[in-house]
Q: What sequence folds into this?
């Protein structure tokens, strides 16, 4: 995994934090937990190039995030921003708490695939191209 600017032990200890942001209120929030975060960062850069305000949130721990103050949680995931995309190389179970009714996810809700990891990830849609496509679906 690439070492992404904006990460530190202090922010990781909060469970979720803004890794990168646009100026102004976000049109969409991309959320990921670990190996998927760099996909969101790259997708956000491309979407910003098209004039969209995109926030990327790294959320390594739901439990630590839930322990934060309501004000902190609102600063990271403002209730007013309902267009959210979670990117999770596992099941989407539990993500609706953070993506809401208007959100979506790129996830794997089945098991049994066998191939090299990079091949499986691509086949399941864990690509910058797919994250952008899903984000644009939410924005339209």
A:
């Amino acid at each position: 995994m690439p070492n992404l600017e904006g990460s530190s032990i202090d922010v990781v200890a909060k469970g979720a934090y803004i890794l990168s942001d646009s100026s102004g209120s976000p049109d969409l929030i991309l959320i990921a937990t670990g190996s998927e975060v760099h996909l969101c960062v790259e997708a956000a850069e491309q979407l910003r190039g098209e004039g969209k305000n995109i926030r990327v949130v790294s959320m390594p721990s739901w439990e630590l995030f839930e322990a934060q103050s309501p004000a902190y949680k609102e600063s990271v995931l403002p209730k007013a921003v309902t267009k959210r995309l979670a990117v999770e190389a596992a099941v989407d179970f539990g993500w609706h708490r953070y993506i809401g009714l208007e959100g979506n996810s790129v996830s794997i809700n089945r098991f049994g695939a066998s191939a090299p990891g990079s091949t499986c990830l691509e086949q399941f849609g864990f690509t910058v191209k797919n994250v952008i496509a899903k984000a644009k679906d939410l924005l339209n």
Q: What stands out?
A: The beta strands are 17-20, 28-32, 54-58, 84-87, 104-106. The chain has one domain: 9-139.
